[in-house]
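Protocol step 4 of 6.
Sequence for NADH dehydrogenase [ubiquinone] 1 alpha subcomplex assembly factor 8 isoform X5 (Acinonyx jubatus) entered exactly as in the expression construct, tag removed. Do not edit the line below.
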Amino acid sequence: MSGNGAVWGRVRGRLRAFPERLAACRAEAAAYGRCVQASTAPGGRLTKDLCVQEFKALRSCFAAAVGQDDPKGRPLGWTSLHYVCVCCPQP
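Step 5 output, structure tokens:
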């Protein structure tokens, strides 16, 4: 189990940097939030793919912000131990 401590130590370090890195995506997050909010306002109707352009821009920004230090280009939160990306949903 000593190997797991090393893995989680690296993952924990990357996760601590997560909020700072994602702060670079404020504009994209705000645009996506405005789109969702407008579609859920009284009389609005949130439907699948209504805010897809805003979501794609936000997802791209997140991927760029968190993947820049990983030499393999994996998103922040990726761990081969679980074969799961805990950062970004896959299409």
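Step 6, annotate. The chain has a mean pLDDT of 75.
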